[in-house]
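step: validate -> pass
step: tokenize input -> pass
step: predict -> running
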Amino acid sequence: MKRLTDKIKSSFLEEYDRWPLWLPVIFGLGIITYLEFPIEPKLYISFILLELLVILAILFRYNKKILITILILGTYLFGFAYTNMRAIYVSAPKITSYYKNWNIEGRVDEVFQTPKRGQKAILSNLKIKGMEVVPKKIKLSLTMKSEKVREGDIISVRAKLYPPQQSMILLGYNFKRKAFFDEIGGYGYAISRLKILSHNNSLTIIDKLSHIRHSMTDKINQILDGDEGAIASALISGDRGKISKKLKNAYRDSGLAHFLSISGLHMSMVVAIVFGLVRLLLSFIPAISNRFDNKKIAAIFSIIISFLYLIISGFKIPTQRAFIMTSIAMLAIMFDKSVISIRVIMFAAISVLLITPEAITGPSFQMSFAAVIALIAAFEAFIGKTKTTLKQKTKSKTLSIILIYFIGIILSDLIASLATTPFAIYHFNRVAAYTLLGNFLAAPIIGLIIMPFGL
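step: predict -> pass
step: emit ->
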């Protein structure tokens, strides 16, 4: 036992340069502690403890062991206090009555397509006749016969409302918490056709980009009918609202559901196309290509376009993670550094948690980061060496590229599946039985044909 303990200790000390990788983990533990805390803590207590830790850090600044301990405690407390501050910031009134009819007027902030009921919309700047305490936002399902709405529209409608609901099962997904952090004080469904009072009221940049997204989705669905249009919309614009329940279940059972969420594959494809296209165009301009590094200029353009794609696709958690990672990769090219590194995950995780700390309890965050951490760790451990060995032992360069591609698909899918399966079981009570075969057949088609031509 002592020998095992000493081995673990020596391995831990050898990886001194990797200790910072644990910062998002410790920060996340602070977030989870706040979210699961039985009572609402006082914010000033966290700040007093943080100030005490700062004083202790100054006093023991020459003692490395104590300083590291203080840093760990400080990161943990900061995660706790930061989530507490966010909760105070987003706190908003909620509906208390159940299924009562209300005359509602409000501004459309977000629009979601649905396969059966038409549209769902999040409304703000609400005027609800007869309601004493009006919530900041509500989410409504609109009737099929209602006119289509867009972000910025001011609408009037009669609807039944109810407060955010608790989890359906013990320790299940907490819908009430999600609604709280989204500042949604109630849900409901329209019982009349809506009336659009005005269009394009005070449009923000986000609204304008959302309009572009809806226009893309509408154009796709005009050309492709039914499920084909729904899948194309999900892959290109990130709009998954029109995918039928039957088709969603088929994608989940086959292990291909991750293709419907805009993440690493989609973002890297956009970046690769922009990067390659800009380099190609610049090579035709000798005045620029002879004086500047085309790679660095292409990297700047790639970051800009990928950011626009992030906004248009809905700013989802996997897309945020993919954007941060691809942007860091482009910055690495600009500064002549290594592109693939486990440290990229650390920056991505901290960035996402600072934007939406509550995302740590959701399946999108957990599965997205679990898959990528496992893939990069495996690449560092043996995939990179396997790739080098294949190149050396295969005489034909074309054959080595084909082998590396297909072996890469099998290995990466196996590793990602092993990493995400526990979270899939916990959140969705299901296991994708055909994920290895499904990804082996689908990944080349989606990666080499559908995504490039779609984009």
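step: describe -> The mean pLDDT is 83.
step: cleanup -> pass
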